[in-house]
Amino acid sequence: MPNYAMVIDLHKCAGCGACAITCKNENNVPEGMYWSNYIHRTRGKFPNVRYEFVPTLCNHCEDAPCVKACPVGAMYKDENGLTLHNPDKCIGCKACVQADPYGVIYYNEEKPHNFWSDKEEAIEKGTSSGKEVKEKYDAPFPFYNPDRAKTYAGVRPKGIVEKCTLCDHRIKDGDVPYCVASCPSGARVFGDLDDPKSEINKLLNKYSYFKLGENFGTKPKVFYIREF
Amino acid sequence: MNSFVPWDMRVTIDLFLGGMGIGAFLLALVAGYLGEPYRLLKKTAAIVSPIAVCTGLLFLISELGRPGRFITTLFNNNSASVMSWGVYLQTGFVIFAVVYALLILKQRDDEGIAGLIKWVGGLLAVGVGIYHGFLLSSNVGAGLWNNGALPIMIFVSSLLTGISLVVVINAAISTNLASSTAANEAAAGKEGSTLFNINLINAVLLVVELIAVLAWLFTLARGSQIMSFGLNNLLSNYPVQWWLGAVVVGIVIPLLLSLYGLKVGKNEQESTTIIAAGAVLILIGGFVLKNVILVAGQIKYPLF
Fold it and tell me: Which residues in B lie closer than 8 A to residue A74 (C-beta atoms)?
């Protein structure tokens, strides 16, 4: 069985944020949540200033604390090494959100994509309301991606959490996660950690790497190479 | 990074009421060994215990995103999950505590199966008390929680608030009852049985609590970056709640009061007033301690 992981080449990353926005499209991720995300910071004092940009996502840790914390087994490791979530089991206790040191598990406090149920028009009798627009589509909301529902809830309902699945619906068909496919500079590389010939293993052998929060002991599987 | 704060005050209320419930149950067991003069104290403690734990659990269930699914926690278990342990410990405890309360109400708590109920219930009470701390300390990214002193602090706080709740209720249901605690102590003293002094129990527990608090603060201050980040967040953003509410009101003043109470000895009126005043302070401080730790501990350590 494969052991999926990701390598992110920080030298190639241009900081465009495409991964964060396309992920939302692919996975029907609600407003305010980013399964694929980035951290950025500015360091130093003028004139020696450095701007750093680090793309992030669920680390699909080998020893995932969210899986340990979940009281009902809704958060689990699958046979491909992915950390996945079963929305039908989830009770919304948020123990996983608490246990996850990376802040990559999101809780649906409100009904997601609520804008498309809103009857209010931006300009009265001038523009359509969210609800009117949605009614023209045979979908939960206009840009809904039905492919997401192949392996996970198409839209995760209010009262449960949601997280990155490394696009398990795409990789089961031999494709790569959408953040990898949409990265214009090819900074995100996806592959099997257990396959010595995989592209990610070649990169990990060639360059030194770091992982976020390694001291948490969670054995994250997102590797960063070529730190600037 | 997601900056959402997952748990609101309903979790504090559960930790507080649940802690009081197990503290009251253990007090009932201790009072049970002291014979007839403590029957009233034992009865109050045993009845209050399951009520407090169940009320806390109702708050906890209401905090779930899907409260209707709470029952699934009984069969969808995860042996690695502290919360899952808590489900079984609390369910078991509530069952035993309710049976024990019924036995006391029917005055059948000294016969037959009651001994077994007491022992199993007592073990489950200790389990629930420790579980509350483990629930927080198991979170690897939470610097304020992820260490060994925290569960001890939470457990001792639960014992103290449980005892105090029973003392306050006893004082409230009758003007005579608070003094009857002291009267009972005097009676027990006269009878030559073990001197059961709430001031003494409180003093011992408060000293243990103070040591646990110091050990916790020291561990955090000299610990990893994550720990000192957590401590810094607590001390800089919640100094009044922590120092004044949790430490001074909840531990230091009640400790001084109970030491003074021990000095005064069996002077009935004074002893009763001191016990009641200390109990109210312990309840306030105990709530503030659990709440401030829960709120401040939920900050995420910046990864980068």
Answer: 76
